[in-house]
Amino acid sequence: MLTATCVLVAQQYAVPSASFWNDLVGGRGYLIAILVTVIAAFGALTPAQIWSERSQMARRTAVRHQILNHFGRLLAIASRVDPKPSASDLGLHVWRVTWSLRRPRRRLIRIATYRLGSTPATRTFEPGRGVGVVGLCWKRNEEVAVDVERLAGKLTTHVDYDEYATAEGADAVMNLAWPEFARVRHRGAVFASPIRNGRGEFIGCVSVDASSGFATLANDELWHELNSLCMLLGDDGLLHV
User: Fold this and answer.
1) DSSP sequence for the chain
2) pLDDT digits (tens, 9 = 90+) for 121-139
3) Ramachandran bin of 213, using left for φ above 0, alpha for ψ from -120 to 50, beta for the remaining angles
4) φ, ψ for residue 190 (rounded to 5)?
5) Where are the transmembrane segments (predicted)?
6) Are 144 and 192 spatial neighbours (Cβ–Cβ below 8 Å)?
7) Is the peptide bond before 16 cis (omega within 30 degrees of 0)?
């Protein structure tokens, strides 16, 4: 639209010269008509575009407000853990199933994290189906909770870990190799609930993790917060997180 406007202004004021425009437009008056049509069309669409952008922003603000409400209630639940953890310990994460042409295998990526502080640091993790607590949530399309602290206390060596995985099955260690387990075991209590679309298909999940306190956190109140948040995000299609 800007280009078309500049061309019309230049033609109106004979820039660079009147002869230039006579040679260019002479006998081709339809060119001016096309430029006017382009300007009119874009001018008509601009208010609709502005309204759409404002509507999207309002929806994103509303969804994030709801997420923060749930996060606040989860913090209240976590405050009952004894010994009481730091305010920044609890993390709430939103995950989405994704793929790309470069990486066609589907995986979960973290699209949002809520935590009161910068520690503990959020580590890069993009699991496939069945890997980690969120991957198991994807595989089963149901709620999953793992007492990682208890598992880490029992499996302190690579040998112990491999023997346990062989005896109990890979799901018992979240299908993680020992190095990956050692990297994430500091999050001692992990919970995940699926986000489903209108057809009941898994499109992502919400997870909560803390350094300890699995027994205190694993209650109906926590699952209510997670599941209601997942329903909200599922209805939204994870478009405004």
Assistant:
1) -HHHHHHHHHHHTTSS-HHHHHHHHTT-THHHHHHHHHHHHHHHHHHHHHHHHHHHHHHHHHHHHHHHHHHHHHHHHHTTSSSPPPTTS-EEEEEEEE--SSS-S-EEEEEEEE-SSS-SPPPP----TTSHHHHHHHHHTS-EEEEHHHHHHH--SHHHHHHHHHHH-GGGGTT--HHHHHHHTT--EEEEEEEE-TTS-EEEEEEEEESS-HHHH-SHHHHHHHHHHHHHHHHHTT---
2) 788 899 999 999 999 999 9
3) left
4) -130, 135
5) 30-51
6) yes
7) yes
Instruction: State phi, psi for 226 to the nearest 5 degrees.
Output: -65, -45
Distances (CA, A) of 112 to 57, 109, 115: 17, 9, 10
**Structure tokens belonging to residue 149:** 């602290």
> CB within 8 A of 33, min separation 6: which ones?
none
pLDDT digits (tens, 9 = 90+) for 8-32: 445 454 445 555 545 555 555 555 5
**Which residue's structure tokens are 């499109």?**
203
Count of other CB atoms within 10 angstroms of residue 147 = 17
The pTM score is 0.77
Among residues 203, 204, 160, which one has the least CA distance to residue 185? 160
Task: Report which residue type is found at 64.
Answer: R
Question: Cis link prior to 194 (omega < 30° from 0)?
Answer: no
